[in-house]
Design a protein that fits this description.
Number of domains: 1
Low-confidence stretches: 1-22
Strand content: over 45%
Number of helices: 1
Distance between the termini: 82 Å
Largest sheet: 8 strands, mixed
Protein name: Neocarzinostatin family protein
Structural class: mainly beta
Mean pLDDT: 88
Organism: Lentzea alba
Keywords: Signal
CATH architecture: Sandwich
Signal peptide: 1-23
Amino acid sequence: MRAISAFVLTAAAIVATALPAAATPPVEAAVAIQPQGRLEARGAAVTVPMRVMCQNGATGSLWVQVTQNVRGELAIGDKYTSSVPCTGEFHKLDVTVVSRTKAFRQGVAFTSATLNVYLPPDSSNMVEEDREMMLVR
């Protein structure tokens, strides 16, 4: 009987140490790209309207990329924003993305956004959204 009890206790101890510690819950965050962007400076840039939300007390950064096929060549631009408001509420942001290749034009473009959020001492989260966006004047 003692041998079985010792075996059960040993097995339980091994299983308990093999299980990972309780993970820290992810920081609340969300990013939403609006369906329509605005061309700026004859297509040199695009203003991308979006909504972001991150947990109060966290710090957030945002990366946005716009890619468009312009007559068989790609117009590509991206923008990194090192600080976004983190209050637990949604905030409207207009991110201006400048083309690195050729001018954007009216029509459909593919847009990606990545919101990185950090809440001290060791919680973080990353949320992404990818979508087609209509570029207009």
